[in-house]
# Entry
Amino acid sequence: MISDIPFLECAPLEDRGADTRGAAEAPTRTARNCDLYIRIFGREYSETTIKEYCEAAEWLIRCLTYVKRVKRSDERLTRFVERELKNRFEFHQFRGEKDLFERIGEDLRRLVLEILQEGLEARTKSKEEAHRVETEEQRRVTRVPLEEAKVPFKDEDHLSSIVAVTVALELGLRKELMKRGIKAERVSIGILLNTAKEFKLIDEREMTIIREILYIRNPAIHAGKIPDRRTVESALEETRRVLRKLESVDRWRNKVK
# Structure
């Protein structure tokens, strides 16, 4: 079906012949090197599928995600969808193969048209720039005390601003949870938000706001869609408010000690 769409070629992993890589390594490397990754989550939990998902997300691979509607599924998969997937990507829920195949076909044709319109070269440059900015912001915010971190907003650099906002929020939450003995260095952003809420670092409204900010960031990183000044300005203000709250919670905690 996929290979029937103009400009697309699909080669299933199991049909690619012998490989010197181990069985566990081959899927993740393939996910990293592909131009488009289609991920489908059904009823059962698969460690390999989750690893492929993480690899594709880390390398900013353009992804189409589909989740099957089932009455009962593996609890681990349900937690993954609720805590991780919903916080990072939009996905389509399907009921059966016919619905799934039709939707994938529609999404792929739309995606091919978008890529042709934007130009492959421009898309590549925007992704590289977004990846560079994200890496720089992570290093910059880590080097200085979080409460003194200055989120860039001058020169109309909205990409750097929205990346810095999400980095500052994520590091702030991880820092406060680690002070409470929680191993939060490497947990996903979805689990991070739920854990922060459980420990009352953020409330339901703040959790929703952070998710909305992440929804602004993801198209900027994955598709080069830079938000406008007003959107970034609102995200900056909400971020400052959340960080001030985290700082005040930390001061209160130190006084109690």
Notes: The CA atoms of residues 83 and 191 lie 5 Å apart.
